[in-house]
Amino acid sequence: MSDYKPKRGGAESPDTYVPRRSSGLSASDFDNYIPARSALTPPRLDDDVDLPPGRLEPAPADVARPASPTLPDVGGAGAAASPAMPDPSATGATASPALPDPSATGATASEAKQDQSGTGAAASGPRPDTVAVDVRPDEKITKAAERPKDAPRSVGHGPMGGMRAAEKAINFGPSMRRLLRMLRPERVLVGLVLVMTLVSVLFSVVGPRILGEATNVIFAGVIGQAIGAKLPAGVSVTKEQAIELLRSSGQTQFADMAAKLDFIPGQGINVTNLSFWVLLAVGLYAVSGLFMWGQGWILNGVIQRTVYRMRKQVADKLDRLPLKYFDGQPRGELLSRVTNDIDNVAQSLQQTLSQLIANLLTLIGVLVMMFWTSWELALIALIAVPLSMGVAMIIGKQSQGRFVQMWKSTGQLNGTIEEAYTGHSLVKVFGRQREVEAAFAEHNNKLYASAFGAQFISGIMMPLMFFIGNLNYVAIAVFGGLRVASGQMNLGDVQAFIQYSRMFTQPITQVASMANLLQSGVASAERVFEVLDADEQTPDASGSLPVPLTGRVAFEDVSFSYNPDKPLITNLSFVAYPGSTVAVVGPTGAGKTTIVNLLMRFYELQGGRITIDGVDIATVPRSELRGQIGMVLQDTWLFHGSIRDNIAYGRPGASEADVLAAAKAAYVDRFVHSLPEGYDTVIDEEGSNVSAGEKQLITIARAFLSEPAILVLDEATSSVDTRTELLVQRAMNALRSGRTSFVIAHRLSTIRDANVILVMADGAIVEQGNHRELMAARGAYYDLYQSQFNAAITEDDATPAGAPVGGPGMMRGAVGK
Predict the structure, then answer these.
(1) Within a 10 A sphere around the Cβ of 424, how many other Cβ atoms?
(2) Which end of the chain has less neighbouring CB within 10 Å, N or C?
(3) In what order do the strands lie in the sheet with 607-612?
(4) Could you tell me whether strands 615-616 and 607-612 are parallel, antiparallel, or unpaired per DSSP bridges?
(5) Is the dihedral of CA 464, 470, 474, 475 positive or negative?
(6) Which helix (H) or strand (E) is 446 found in, with range?
(7) Quick check: helix, strand or coil at residue 278?
(8) In whole angstroms, what is the distance from residue 476 CA to residue 502 CA?
(9) Of 84, 42, 45, which is closest to residue 59 (Cα–Cα)?
(10) Is 606 within 8 Å of 560 (Cβ atoms)?
């Protein structure tokens, strides 16, 4: 055996570990062990089996319990919370507490309830296990929208954005306000972004008007030269005189057009004025672009910091959520909310916040400039808006169903491929390649047909939009040309209006396409808010456990149920003394793991209390409580890292010598040296480079290193082979030495040396005792034991001679032909 010595308060660790029937109490002390009791069902003991001396039969629920000795006040200076530990060298017994004689004191299964202050107040009534979060009633999310099934997460097809998954928020308005309120710490920068966006949009909207003035300068120069060419040589006239000459010569329309221009007859283009307008337009566009870039850079930082705070809030929230919340949530769904949904919120804010504000301001500014330039042309341009929206809605409805079918076919095809890939060996063994190929071909054909129809119909969207836009452009050009020819508008104004008409349709299309993206972002935000709004576990109390801790655990009239309509544990009481091993057995659903969950305060009690060394665990911070309890579970959890790091996880800051000592004590050192990198061997994400038994030994070494006062072993050997089970069992025996241990097991061979075995059924203790006593009682434990070890023999003996065994054509003891 290893020379590793577990360190714990209250007693010195034995120099060597010697396996024996009881690794805690001695045989004589065990006879005085106070039995567990339950108000539901008394122990199933046969009448012909005598109770050991000093043991008490649990009292019925309706019988008053006699007075019990009170525990010392843990708040007193130097007062111990449990009976004194005798010196092993003096008595020859293992390190265990001296047990009082129940017959002498009149003690029942549990000692008198006494709170940490020594007042003796008993815990009564159900305790609230969660506290509500302070959120505005109209903004609290109790049930968020489900994520569309089989739909891609990327942006879909079509300018209207209707070709992607229709994720809609349940409570869009309040959720949007709450999401925007998360930007409040950045309100100064958000205000700066709005100002910079306004300036950028203002300059970009004024730009076409400035270019129109430059066009007027050019057109005026051309008209001035044309009129000067018609004048006699050496004749100089003014603009008014030239227009009168044109009217007198019968060129009235040309005169009306020239009257709107600022020209000098006989002179060409005014380069000075043209340069001014061109440079002004270039400057405006440059400043607009610079401001747009600046607001994008600032907004990116604002959004990323906001999402950072959201992630931090979710991470902190997960630490405050009770275990029952995680039990009621699919693991993948919760992970998706923490990762995918927050990323989707960031992407939606990044793409919509700046563009939405800019497009809305652009839409308002362009509309104002269009009516200012020509209200008649503005009305013509507005006719195309409802026409475009009607066409988009018709095509969107036609294509949406086909896209849904495409997503469904994609999910079915992916599922078929995934099943065939993961079960490739099974498909080969049973020769089902043709069936798999047929299923793949069927789903592939469905995907082809639906994808072709969806893409074809959605592909019509852009050509129709361009067609409507070109019709609008033709109408504006013709009507504007007639107004220029009649002298009612300048050519530059018509040019500016054509640019405005293009600028007007673009924001409408982008705002419509961002509607679904914004809906998707708010829907994701609601799923995140649902996590943030979940009820939290009750705050930690300010009490503390005694130092040193001896490990006396008492369940006193404990009641609990996962579902209020289905009671699970009612008035359960038992005591586990320091150094003893308590095994809990029973069928699935009997409440074995529930006892551990209640001890760890993963769930809060609904009645009674649990004490450790006389201190109610409800008065102790959860971190302090769990720091004194070590767990080795059936499902081994190893993170991506070296074997050394996984062992050191049990105690941060542990020295190399401590890690190696724990590894040797848990028999990890025996197989580590056969690995290429030894203790530096990196365990991959699946843990496939070490066996199941080796992973279990590593978790035991981790528990060794944590040096707990109380140990919980939950089916620690259920997934290992027989040879490895012996090593794991020896390591667990060494780990249990000198510690109060709770062992949950289905393999009854692993708990035969326990001090007390509690047999549970329907949340109640139906039997208790050691292995010898329970086998002699021939009760529930005896039935479980016989079902494990003698079921095959009994079935074999009950089979008549010559009867077929295992199916047609097979006879017991027959050899195949």
Answers:
(1) 12
(2) C
(3) 37-38, 569-576, 553-560, 607-612, 615-616
(4) antiparallel
(5) positive
(6) helix 433-459
(7) helix
(8) 11
(9) 42
(10) yes
User: How many helices (DSSP H) and strands (DSSP E) are in the chain?
Assistant: 26, 15
Q: What does the alpha-carbon distance between residue 699 and residue 271 come to, in Å, rounded to a whole number?
A: 86
The tokens for 762 are: 């329907």
Per DSSP, the three-state class of 780 is helix
Q: Give pLDDT, residue 161.
A: 41
Long-range contacts of 681-685 (CB under 8 A, 24+ apart): 681/642, 681/643, 682/640, 682/641, 682/642, 683/638, 683/639, 683/640, 683/641, 683/642, 683/643, 683/646, 684/640, 685/640
| Contact (CB, 8 A) for 390 and 465 | no
Residues 194, 199, 204, 208, CA torsion sign? positive
Percent helix, strand and coil across the chain, each to the nearest 5: 55, 10, 40
Place of tokens 């079915």: 412
Count of CB atoms within 10 A of residue 436's CB? Answer: 16
3-class DSSP state of 572? strand
* Close Cβ partners of 387 (under 8 Å, ≥ 6 residues apart): 468
Say if CB 31 and CB 568 are below 8 A apart.
no
SS3 of residue 546 by DSSP? coil
- 237: which residues sit within 8 A by CB, 6+ positions away? 231, 245, 265
Task: Give pLDDT, residue 281.
Answer: 92
Tokens of 32: 């005085």
The answer to whether 613 and 545 are in contact (CB under 8 A) is yes
The crossing angle, in degrees rounded to 10, of helices 491-532 and 271-320 is 10
Indicate the SS3 state at residue 765. Answer: strand
Are 115 and 619 spatial neighbours (Cβ–Cβ below 8 Å)? yes
CA distance linking residue 490 with residue 478, whole number of Å: 14
pLDDT in tens, 300-309: 999 999 999 9
User: Is the distance from CB of 7 to CB of 23 less than 8 angstroms?
Assistant: no
Burial of residue 163, with CB atoms counted within 10 A of its CB: 0-12 exposed, 13-18 middle, 19 or more buried: buried
What global pTM score does this model have? 0.65
Gap between the Cα atoms of 158 and 465, Å rounded: 11
Q: For strands 629-632 and 710-714, give the pairing.
A: parallel
Q: How many CA atoms lie within 13 A of 800 on its CB side?
A: 3
Q: Which two three-digit tokens encode residue 650?
A: 């049990």
Question: Nearest 5°: phi and psi at 811?
Answer: -120, 145
**Residue 99 near residue 139 (C-beta atoms within 8 A):** no
Q: Is the pLDDT of residue 99 over 90?
A: no
Give the C-alpha separation, 128 to 273, whole Å. 80
Burial letters 3-37, b for 16+ CB under 10 A, else e? ebbbebebbebeeebeeeebbbbbeebbebbbbbb
pLDDT above 50 (res 342): yes
pLDDT tens digits, one per residue of 603-623 = 888 889 999 998 999 899 988
- Are the beta carbons of 514 and 107 closer than 8 angstroms? no
- List, in sequence order, every residue forming a beta bridge with 713; answer none if it has no partner: 632, 743
The whole-number pLDDT of residue 626 equals 87
Distance CA 290, CA 365 (A): 19
Mean pLDDT along residues 677-698: 79
**What angle do the packed helices 342-373 and 187-230 form, to 10 degrees?**
30
DSSP-derived pairing of the beta strands 607-612 and 581-585: unpaired
